[in-house]
Specification:
Blueprint lengths: L2 E5 L6 H6 L5 E5 L11 E3 L11 E4 L6 H9 L7 E5 L5 H5 L7 E5 L3 H6 L2 E6 L5 H14 L4 E4 L8 H17 L5 H12 L5 H8 L1 H15 L8 H9 L13
Parallel strand pairs: 1-2, 1-4, 2-3, 4-5, 5-6, 7-8
Antiparallel strand pairs: 6-7
Helix pairs in contact: 6-8, 6-9, 9-10
């Protein structure tokens, strides 16, 4: 039976679990809070308990020592596929810490977006051979049959989330500079561009913390001024605030 193992996460994985076919076993390591989700998640204490060919969805920070520890712990698993979250890094970055015979792919997992978007953007580490990359993509298609899989370049945030983060950032600058309120900006974007949801409404859904982390990771890679996070957005991330908790103005 094919298997997926969720590793080191405290994020909302209910939409992810719901997308995995019933024919898959779903495990979790170091994430007891995930066990009740749909009754499908089985806790395991060690990677040795997992079958070969397991898909490991790792939510840990690929830049942290945690990722290197993770790679070292799974050396007994054969033909494992790592999937890392591209909201803060890339498959290529994570692959630096893994063994040569393990494949690494990335997707952008933000619960609210994953649930609403029929398209799932994925990328593979450039260290992989064409055959390994093709196999990784095939595994992803089988694991998420309800999603339209789009293979994109291995970049932080991929395409949709990166674009949304930049729009959110510009909207936050407009609020900080007193150009308009969050509600006015969102209304203008919905009426003027046909957006079903305003950028600051989206920010509240995915959190300012996620947006700022993504922008910082993009800035680290590109060294481009357009990825400089708005200070208001950064302060809101630090405070755990949302734009619609109350109207946020330039005084912040």
């Amino acid at each position: 039976m094919p298997a997926v193992c969720l590793v080191s996460t405290d994020t909302d994985i209910a939409p992810l679990v719901a997308a995995i076919p019933e024919s898959y076993s779903v495990y979790a390591i170091a994430a007891e809070e995930l066990v009740p989700v749909g009754g499908r998640v089985t806790p395991v204490g060690d990677f040795d308990e997992l079958p070969d060919n397991t898909i490991l969805v790792a939510f840990c920070d690929p830049y942290a020592e945690e990722s290197e520890d993770l790679a070292a712990e799974v050396d007994n698993l054969t033909n494992a596929l790592f999937i890392v979250n591209a909201t803060g890094s890339t498959a290529t970055r994570f692959a630096q810490s893994t063994l040569e015979d393990q494949s690494v792919a990335a997707f952008t997992y933000v619960p609210s977006m994953f649930e609403a978007n029929p398209v799932l953007e994925i990328s593979t580490a450039i260290q992989l051979s064409p055959a390994q990359a093709g196999q990784a993509v095939a595994q992803m298609r089988l694991a998420f049959p309800g999603k339209q899989i789009e293979v994109v370049q291995d970049r932080v945030g991929h395409i949709a989330l990166r674009t949304l983060a930049m729009v959110i950032n510009e909207a936050a600058f407009a609020v900080m500079e007193g150009v308009a309120t969050p509600a006015e900006i969102d209304t203008a974007m919905k009426l003027g561009t046909g957006y079903p949801t305003g950028p600051l409404e989206w920010c509240d859904r995915i959190s300012a913390y996620t947006v700022v982390n993504l922008l910082d990771a993009l800035n680290d890679d590109y060294r481009d001024e357009r990825y400089r996070a708005c200070i208001l957005l950064r302060q809101m991330a630090r405070a755990g605030r949302k734009f619609y908790d109350e109207e946020v103005g330039s005084r912040q």
